[in-house]
Amino acid sequence: MIDSIAQSPHWVLYLVFGSIIFLFLVVDLGLLNRSAKELGGKAALYQSLFWIGISLLFGVFIYYYFKDLDKALAFFSAYATEKALSFDNMFVMLLILNYFNVERKYHHRVLTWGILGALVFRGIFIFLGLYLIDLFRGILYLFSGFLIYSGIKLFFDKEEDSIEPEKSFIYRISSRFLPLKHGDHQGKFVVRENGKLMFTTLFLVLLLIETTDIFFAADSIPAAFAISDDRFIIYTSNIFAVLGLRALFFLLSSIINKFYLLQKGVSLILIFIGIKLGLELFHIQVPTYVSFSVIVFFLVSSVLGSMVIPRSSDESGQSNDNSETPKRSKRKTDLVLEEDEP
After folding, report:
1. If you ran DSSP here, which 8-state letter would residue 189 be given?
2. E strand or H helix at 200
3. What is the mean pLDDT, run by run of 10 residues, along the chain of 342 residues?
4. Domain-by-domain residue ranges, the chain?
5. Is 143 in contact with 315 (CB distance < 8 Å)?
6. 67: region left, alpha or beta (phi > 0 left; psi from -120 to 50 alpha)
7. Where are the alpha helices (DSSP H) in 8-68?
8. Is 311 helix (H, G, I), strand (E, B) or coil?
9. What is the pTM of this model?
10. Closest Cα to residue 124, out of 135, 136, 132?
């Protein structure tokens, strides 16, 4: 895969992209956010707008570099889809942090390392997926069916406001094999006690968030493959969407329950791109501008609908009972955070 990038006539784009990401990560993580502190609403807004702006500018750069509107629209489509899927991820992040009573000033540290891990794993999964497609293109049939199934299941899933990580496989394995130290961790993932290295509760939280993100990638990466077969578009759109996730979390964590129709919008996007991928396997091409328009329509409609259309009486009553508790769908999270007791 690395050889194919090096031999690509557009390898310079990867170099530019990598340099930009590295520079921003050094500035953001190394200079601006070294101390443990809660990211304020204004700072979160500015950082969210910054990452969204950089992503949009990069899409414009793709258009002018390739002189190809379809490539730019494919980038924007994949980026918007990944952003929409990331909302469900944020629900789970907030639930995990609240469950373990992690102080808000340490949220930034956990999410920072979580995002860095996501960058690595997303890159691995994308390149692995492309490699498998090169070997056996029929795997796209599986991707198509999986996206349609996930979309239908997500559409009819009810939102939940609680998780039980102590029942999960990851939690039980970690508790059994890792020397864990509960209690005050002062923002550290590892501490030394009586000459012995101990993993803190904060490390366990990070492990759960990271593992959850891996399972969420099971939707987002096939979705990107369904939108474009250009490995550069797939990788860069996914990475840009992930990079802005942390700031978006702090910006929306207090109002995320307001977008109650977003789950429906995301499910319809998954169903649409799954059908689109299936049609392409039968040599029926859906124009890129149509895909982009449909994705934006579902995303914007679900957000605006959540703001304009009042919830049903059942949903409103449930929300008022625990307005501060985020709701989430059952999507992939149960595989990591909950298991049925025997």
Report:
1. S
2. strand 196-200
3. 51 78 71 60 80 90 89 92 81 81 82 84 85 82 88 78 68 81 77 82 87 78 85 87 80 71 87 89 85 91 86 54 50 52 46
4. 13-337
5. no
6. left
7. 11-25, 41-66
8. coil
9. 0.80
10. 132
